[in-house]
Structures are given as structure tokens and as C-alpha cells.
Write a structure and sequence with these properties.
Metal Binding Protein, Guanine Nucleotide Exchange Factor, Chain A, three-stranded antiparallel sheet, mainly beta
Length: 136
């Protein structure tokens, strides 16, 4: 089944086949600055179709990842791993989020004190994320 997403102005459209419903929350400093709070995203893998790529700006945020946003409306679109082009697409862009569930949080030790998620989730600290996936 194909899941569809778009930015606020509709100039960028994203399609994903067989997308999981697991939403992850990232609390790292970059994600908090980029999204204004925890960055809520779905790991959509590498099979992501994007229409309107001419409307996307890419910000090279680290040695291993980059962030895409719409040039027109500024919507945060995705966090993409450079090595394998794996997309973490902003959960709020999808047309039908009814099956979504936040099930994991990363950089939990960097979470801002002004909010708490009610879901029972798997949590990883910054050190655990880097130990498992590399980077820094």
C-alpha cells in the first residue's frame, strides 16, 4: 500500500510503499532546533519517491546526514543518511497518520525538560545511539 505525504504548500510530494507505522522521536540538539521540539519521523528506508525535487533545499547537517526542506513553505521534509540514502520522513507530512504510534526515542538524555511523551517507548541515549550506529 502506498502512503502519501506533502509539504505545507504541496509543491513537494512524497510516496512510500509498505511504510511502517513506527514513529521515532529524536531529541538531539540539531533536531530540536530544526523542528522546534522533538523531531517525529518514520524510517521510510531507501525506496522513497519524491515529486517536486526542484523545490527541495538540502542542508548538510553532519558528516553522515543531511536534512531536506521545502524552498517555498519551509516544511521539514526528511533527515537522510548519506551512506545509503535512507530517509526519515517527517511524520506530520503524511495524509493518513491514523495508524502511527511513537515507539522509540533517541538522544533521550538530550530531551528538553518542557515536554514528556506519554507513550511507553524504547529509549536510547546519545552514547547508545553512537555505539550502535556510529557517527558523532
Amino acid at each position: 500500500m502506498e502512503s502519501k505525504a506533502s509539504c505545507l504548500c504541496g509543491k513537494v510530494k512524497i510516496s512510500v510503499n509498505n511504510m511502517p507505522s513506527n514513529v521515532g522521536a529524536c531529541h538531539c540538539g540539531m533536531c530540536r532546533k530544526w523542528s522546534g521540539s522533538a523531531y517525529m519521523a518514520i524510517d521510510c528506508g531507501t525506496e522513497v519517491k519524491i515529486d517536486g525535487t526542484e523545490n527541495i533545499s538540502i542542508y548538510n547537517s553532519s558528516d553522515w546526514a543531511e536534512r531536506g526542506f521545502c524552498k517555498n513553505c519551509g516544511s521539514n521534509l526528511f533527515y537522510r543518511l548519506k551512506e545509503n540514502q535512507q530517509y526519515m520522513v517527517s511524520a506530520g507530512l503524511f495524509e493518513d497518520p491514523s495508524s502511527f504510534m511513537v515507539d522509540h526515542q533517541i538522544f533521550i538524555d538530550k530531551k528538553a525538560a518542557y515536554y514528556t511523551l506519554a507513550n511507553d517507548t524504547k529509549n536510547m541515549t546519545e552514547a547508545e545511539v553512537f555505539a550502535r550506529y556510529g557517527g558523532e
